[in-house]
Fold this sequence. Notes:
6-stranded parallel sheet; alpha/beta; Rossmann fold; 6 helices; 3-stranded antiparallel sheet
Amino acid sequence: MKKIGMFFGTETGSTRLIAKKIHKKLGDDIAAKPVNVNRITMEEMLQYDVLILGTPSYGEGAIPGLSAGCLEPNWEEFLAKSDQQPDFSGKRIAFFGLGAQERYSERFCSSLFKLYELFKGYGAEIVGSWSTEGYTFAHSAAVEDGRFVGLVIDERTQGRFTDERIDAWLAQVKPLLLEKLATPA
């Protein structure tokens, strides 16, 4: 499809709200409406060459899902629907994740890394790393080479920075996502 596919997992609705903010800033002309992964199949996701995927952090840095304590299906259950490993070769993905750096300082936004690692293993090209500057945490698995593997949002303690961070991240990733959309499949 010639739009950016937007998919998210959520537990409390915060990841959904961030996905909606990102969608609104991108616009309907280039981004499909964000969809909860508990409402789609892998085949539906694979229709897109360019994706923005969002996740809450839940449990001990695991993929969010019922086994991590989520109350409804999330990424874990979505990924379990596939009988075989999906092929995301040739697809470009940007990630965003939510976490609470003060409450979960020792594993801040670590679920983001698990999702990143999986899709990288599926052959996807990953874009959109994000600076750790301005965050205070003890450890995050989502930090690779000194940067987060995607946009990190802390609505609990730094909600006042959310729009500013989304805008700065989109300024960085939007050209890379549009470039891929313009490339013939």
